[in-house]
Amino acid sequence: MLFNQFNNREELLKMFIPPDMLAQQKKTKRYWSILNELKNPKTTWCTPNNIIYEHQTLRLRHFPNRDDTTARRPVLILPPQAGHHSNLADYSPAQSLVRVFHRYGYDVYVTQWLSATPEYKNLGISDYIRLTDEAVEEVRRRTGIFKIHLVGQCQGGWQATIYTCLYQDKIATLIKAAAPIDMQAAPSPIVDDAQLPMSFFEYLVARGNGLMDGKYILMGFKNMQAEEHYVRKYQRLWKWIQEDDEDNIKRFIRFENWYEYTQMLPGKFYLEIIKNIFKENNLTKPGAMKIDGKPVDLRNINCPVIIMAGAKDHITPPPQAFALKNYISTPEENVIEILTEGGHIGTLMGTESLREDWSRVNEVLKLVI
Length: 369
Known about the structure:
By secondary structure, the protein is of the alpha/beta class. It has a domain of 223 residues: Rossmann fold. The protein is 44% helix and 17% strand. The strands form 4 sheets. The chain has an 8-stranded mixed β-sheet with strand order 1-2-6-3-7-8-13-14, with helices on both faces. The protein is globular.
C-alpha cells in the first residue's frame, strides 16, 4: 500500500533518503554513465566538407570557404596516421585548424587516413607518399594552381617533408608542426621505446594479422604519462561533475571520444616507420631511404619552411623538430621557427596555439608569392 501512494520511485526515495545523498547518487550515476559511453568512442568533423577523392586508405576532403577565397594558393593538411582520427585538423568549432586557414581566405583540403583493412596491410611509406601525391594532384587539378601550401601535423609532418623533397616543384611552402626529423637531436620516451628489438614490433603486427592495432600505439602514448591518463583525468572529471561544471565535462567527453578512438595501420607502414624514422634516423642521412627507387634527400627542399614545436612536447621535443633547418637547402631567412607554449597535442589543436601561433603561420604565408 505504501508504494501505491507515490507516483514513482523518485518520490519514495526522497522520503527515506536525504537530499544530499540523492544528489550524490545522481552524480555517481552520471560519472559512470559517461565512462561507459566512452567505451565506444566516436568522433566526426565539425566544419562542412565534401569527399572529393578516395583511394585505398586515403579520403580527400574539401572544406569550402564560406567567405571569399582571397588567398592565392590552396592549403593541403596532412594529419597524422598514428592510430587516431584525422579530424585532429578540424576537432571542434573552437579548435579547428581548418577554420584558422579559412579566416585568412584559404581554400582548404585535408587528407583523411582511413583505418586499414587486411587488403591494405602491405602498404608502406612509399604508398603513403604516392597517396599524398594523388591528393596533391587532385587539389592542383581542381584549383589550377601549380604550387600549393603543404601542412604536416606530427607524423604527417615528416611525411610532408619526405614528399616535399621528392616533389619540390609542387610545393610553395612546407609547414611542419610537432614532427620529428632528427631523433638524435634530443632524447624522448618514444625514441627510447623504439629501441626495443624489431621482433617486438613484428609481434604486435602479427597479432593483427599484418595490421598494427592503434590501441597498442595509444597504450604507448598513455604510458609516457601514466598518472595523467590512468588517474588524474578521471579525478578531474569527478571534480567537474561535483561542481556541475558542464563546459569542462563537455570538453572532457569530446577529447576522450577523439583520443580513445583508434584505427588500424598497415603493418608494413608501421614497421618501416619504426626502422627508418625512429631506429636508424634515416631522414638525416641523404639517400638512406628510397621511395620508389628515388633517394630521400632533404637537401632537395629549397622552398620557404615553417617549423613549429611545443615547449612542453614530450613526444617530439623541439630540437627534434627544429633540426630540419640543418638538412635543407632553404636559405636561413626563409626558415621560420615557432615555439609554442603547449605540448604535443596543444601545438596541433590547442585553443591558444590556434589563436596565436597558427595565426602567425598564416601571416607568414601571406608573404609567399
